[in-house]
Amino acid sequence: MSAKQLLRKSVKALLRQVPRGVIESQSKAIADALIPLLGDAKNIACFMSMENGEVDTQYVLKQLFERGSAVYLPRCTSTRETGHVSLRESKKHHMHLTFHRMTSWQQVTEMVPQGKYQLREPPKEDPAPLPAKLDVMLVPAVAFCLQNGARIGHGAGFYDDFFQRYQLQHNGSKPLLIGLSLVEQIVDTIPVEPHDWQMDCIVSGDGEVSWVNR
């Protein structure tokens, strides 16, 4: 296994042991620490948490709707389905994310697990939306490093692909990237490759805010 694969495996094993109550309390602390950071940011992308092993984003999402944010959530799709450009030289088509504007918290609660990964996702839109202009993007991971903002995901490259896709759509700009992390997901070092993106800020389950780029 590569260093990344070993790290991913060890952190996932640790996360499986974290009690649900601990995840809930850390997730609430993250939401409370995050909202004041957003200032006048209006357009915010978030993610729908999986059942175990990562921040429960329901607490963040509720507060985003309460503050009147325009909230965008991801859908797992493919370039074959969307017709969007392939960003991987070795593949004519590949999986990627599209982000969809949600109209209300109720719409979020009505989403049910579906597809290969049993994810709660927004309904399909036709045509599939290109990346909307965002102020902030809240990013998941398996692990984060506070020193340089590095992250390691599940290995499929969905978010690195979207960040590149976003820059192509918006003339090289990017939103503020904020990682949301349980305390158990913080590690000392993460191997970084040229295609990897680092966070500008990480908010962790102890309520700490760690800025990397400000």
From TrEMBL:
<feature type="binding site">
    <location>
        <begin position="4"/>
        <end position="8"/>
    </location>
    <ligand>
        <name>ATP</name>
    </ligand>
</feature>
<keyword id="KW-0547">Nucleotide-binding</keyword>
<feature type="binding site">
    <location>
        <position position="48"/>
    </location>
    <ligand>
        <name>substrate</name>
    </ligand>
</feature>
<dbReference type="InterPro" id="IPR024185">
    <property type="entry name" value="FTHF_cligase-like_sf"/>
</dbReference>
<dbReference type="GO" id="GO:0009396">
    <property type="term" value="P:folic acid-containing compound biosynthetic process"/>
</dbReference>
<dbReference type="GO" id="GO:0005524">
    <property type="term" value="F:ATP binding"/>
</dbReference>
<dbReference type="GO" id="GO:0005739">
    <property type="term" value="C:mitochondrion"/>
</dbReference>
<dbReference type="InterPro" id="IPR002698">
    <property type="entry name" value="FTHF_cligase"/>
</dbReference>
<protein>
    <recommendedName>
        <fullName>5-formyltetrahydrofolate cyclo-ligase</fullName>
        <ecNumber>6.3.3.2</ecNumber>
    </recommendedName>
</protein>
<dbReference type="GO" id="GO:0030272">
    <property type="term" value="F:5-formyltetrahydrofolate cyclo-ligase activity"/>
</dbReference>
<dbReference type="InterPro" id="IPR037171">
    <property type="entry name" value="NagB/RpiA_transferase-like"/>
</dbReference>
<feature type="binding site">
    <location>
        <begin position="151"/>
        <end position="159"/>
    </location>
    <ligand>
        <name>ATP</name>
    </ligand>
</feature>
<keyword id="KW-0067">ATP-binding</keyword>
<keyword id="KW-0460">Magnesium</keyword>
<dbReference type="Pfam" id="PF01812">
    <property type="entry name" value="5-FTHF_cyc-lig"/>
</dbReference>
<dbReference type="GO" id="GO:0046872">
    <property type="term" value="F:metal ion binding"/>
</dbReference>
<feature type="binding site">
    <location>
        <position position="54"/>
    </location>
    <ligand>
        <name>substrate</name>
    </ligand>
</feature>
<dbReference type="GO" id="GO:0035999">
    <property type="term" value="P:tetrahydrofolate interconversion"/>
</dbReference>
<comment type="similarity">
    <text>Belongs to the 5-formyltetrahydrofolate cyclo-ligase family.</text>
</comment>
<keyword id="KW-0479">Metal-binding</keyword>
